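quick q for whoever's on today - can somebody do inverse folding on this one?? i tried earlier but teh output was garbage lol. tokens:
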């Protein structure tokens, strides 16, 4: 389900631990970007640029990108976030197999498609649960009004938003 906070949670974890790795990359909106022609290549280029600081990485096609990622990152301890993956090809072409990366590497995948994680060698799955109405109301009030409950004139609006 969308709107649960998967991307926000992944971003917080990324920001907290990225300094512990040789390189890190946050690939946002992968589903949306992969729907466009040639975008997997641009994501592969972003990965190499972020992880190895390679500005000109000469990837001509998806398979060049796969080979370059696999060969050049094999000994690097990296953190990669694949945000909003929707298809097995997204994972195969961007993070492939665990042996693409050095020991201690972590790949975080956010997706709406739990089945996708069963098709890829994923070690641990954390499933977010939707907030209850009361939890959602409290969260909205804290974020929108900086208090646990809104002023009387905003109660109806807050309830309709939740």
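ok took a stab at it. sequence:
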């Amino acid at each position: 389900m969308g709107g649960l906070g998967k991307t926000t949670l992944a971003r917080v974890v990324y920001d907290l631990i990225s300094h512990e790795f040789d390189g890190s990359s946050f690939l946002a909106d992968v589903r949306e970007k992969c729907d466009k022609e040639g975008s997997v290549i641009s994501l592969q280029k972003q990965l190499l640029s972020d992880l190895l600081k390679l500005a000109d990485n000469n990837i001509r096609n998806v398979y060049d990108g796969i080979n370059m990622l696999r060969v050049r990152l094999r000994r690097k301890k990296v953190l990669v976030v694949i945000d909003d993956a929707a298809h097995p090809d997204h994972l195969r072409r961007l993070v492939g197999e665990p042996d693409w990366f050095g020991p201690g590497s972590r790949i975080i995948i956010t997706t709406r498609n739990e089945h996708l994680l069963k098709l890829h060698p994923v070690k641990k799955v954390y499933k977010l649960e939707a907030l209850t109405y009361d939890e959602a109301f409290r969260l909205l009030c804290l974020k929108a009004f900086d208090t646990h409950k809104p002023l009387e004139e905003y109660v109806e609006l807050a309830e309709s938003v939740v």
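fwiw Residues 131-161 form one domain. also The longest strand covers residues 78-85. so keep that in mind when u check it
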